[in-house]
Amino acid sequence: MINVLLTSSPCMPKIDLHSHSTISDGSYTPAELVTYAASKGVEIMALTDHDDVGGLAQARIVAEELGVSLINGVEISVTWNKRTIHIVGLRVDPSHPGLLAGLESIRAGRLTRAVAIAAELDKAGITGSLEGSRAYARERIISRTHFARFLVAQGYAKDVKTVFKKFLVKGKPGHVSHQWADMSDAIGWIRNSGGVAVLAHPGRYDMGKTTLHGLFNTFKEAGGEAVEVVSGSHTVDQYRIFAEFAQLYELQASAGSDYHGPAHNYFDMGRLPPLPSGCVPVWQGWPELAQFEARRISA
Fold first, then answer.
1. Domains located in the chain, CATH noted
2. Burial of 131 per CB tally in 10 Å (0-12, 13-18, 19+)
3. Tens-digit pLDDT profile for residues 249-280
């Protein structure tokens, strides 16, 4: 039986292993994001931008200055069973050639998709969306979130959340089907670069139980090692559900806010509850835990 404990231990650091910067679709630069995390008491964090590791070097400089342990991360878009699934890579080598080549191929596909989304919005009478979304995409990636910000600014919706109810999703103006990376390829890029593959926020995928078990089976067989049990987009009940999935599939458990910025975050940094009892943390045995303990004892 899985118990959900919502109290934290002073002997454990605040950990957040899923966050985004302006390198993908976050509001803060990598440096600003680390600074914000530190202000919220986060002691171990991962920067996991979509399909890009370009912000890690900048983030690490600030993390070292502020005493935050930064975990090299990325969130890779994959297609499984005609659905978009996200796989987080933790402790990846951001200079690994295979990982870099794979991410570059996905970013090229993102640009193709952006052009197609703009064309669909043109058909709906919404013009200038490609150029408008570029104004919000401060780096190499143009995502649906950047289109959403443009649509909000143009008065088509009151906020980003509303955009994803009225536009850009299946059956709505601006929706474009897209083939992302194969799951086994993405997990291979992560593992070959020395990282751990984590199934991101499974509660967001709107699947029935049978399909969800199929996803976990495929993920596990492809070499996946962990699942986000505590996620900014999960309910308390889902913490328990995915803790049980983690045990059933012998996966480690991860926790991340999926923080994108103050205007569109699911959960603020530094506010995540601990993992349910019975979970095996993905960070078990990490040297950053020993470093935290050494700092705590010497304080």
1. 15-95+182-298 (3.20.20.140), 106-166 (1.10.150.650)
2. exposed
3. 999 999 999 999 987 657 899 999 999 999 99
